[in-house]
Amino acid sequence: xxxxxxxxxxxxxxxxxxxxxxxxxxxxxxxxxxxxxxxxxxxxxxxxxxxxxxxxxxxxxxxxxxxxxxxxxxxxxxxxxxxxxxxxxxxxxxxxxxxxxxxxxxxxxxxxxxxxxxxxxxxxxxxxxxxxxxxxxxxxxxxxxxxxxxxxxxxxxxxxxxxxxxxxxxxxxxxxxxxxxxxxxxxxxxxxxxxxxxxxxxxxxxxxxxxxxxxxxxxxxxxxxxxxxxxxxxxxxxxxxxxxxxxxxxxxxxxxxxxxxxxxxxxxxxxxxxxxxxxxxxxxxxxxxxxxxxxxxxxxxxxx
Length: 304
What we know:
By secondary structure, the protein is an alpha+beta fold. Helix 2 runs antiparallel to helix 4 (155-190) and helix 5 (202-230) runs antiparallel to helix 6. The chain is built from 8 helices and 10 strands. The chain has helices at 6-19, 30-37, 53-56, 155-190, 202-230, 236-261, 272-284, 289-300, and strands at 47-50, 64-69, 72-82, 90-97, 107-113, 119-125, 131-143, 147-148, 192-193, 196-197. It folds into 2 domains: 39-153, Butyryl-CoA Dehydrogenase, subunit A, domain 2 (Beta Barrel); 157-300, Butyryl-CoA Dehydrogenase, subunit A, domain 3 (Up-down Bundle). The longest helix has 36 residues, at 155-190.
């Protein structure tokens, strides 16, 4: 598990977004954090997490279903998994157990070898260049001894990891959007048309102001979630709202930066496209606006 505070980790994620370097969310210690929350030993660098919620943002979405056969589990389903920095050897598969007698048996985490029978991994590259694996499991056998963490339900630990992941994704999106905003301000302040800089035009000033307001709001939402975490309080709602607003509004910021540059904004040697692509990818990972609204509705008005 990371020894850095949540504030430090968000700062690092924001810096990665600004630099348009490999996303720390995809090569982060979230797997180690999950193991710590489950009371299990920390995984090595050759282990990756397979969990449907990393794509959908739904804490109940395992992406994989587990069917019990004696003391053996058969795992089947699909999910996206972040590609680790080292050779992949084992998978921590988050799977929802099929109900028995109408009783929900919750979500468990199973460790399986990446080369086990029934495991199919295919490399995938996201639009921003991030490397991932598309993972398919078809009747993969896992024994009780392969379970990671408690023998029953791992949902509380999974929810905590998802909250952290949402906040890190939001901070990284903010870094990319803020960098695009800064570049747009620099451009309109120096680019002249008809004898005056573009920034002298009121319509341009309004666009820049809209970008600044959006970034300021997202930063305030991140700070709110971190403040809750620092005093040991749950920050699920705060992280959900931050991810919702960021996914809905920050793509507009990076798109506006392109537009303020005019035709210059679409040159491949300019960094605008890297920031825009990173924001678009992270807006979809861990659930986009629709998924976050659904999660927020469940928090505010849980089913009876």
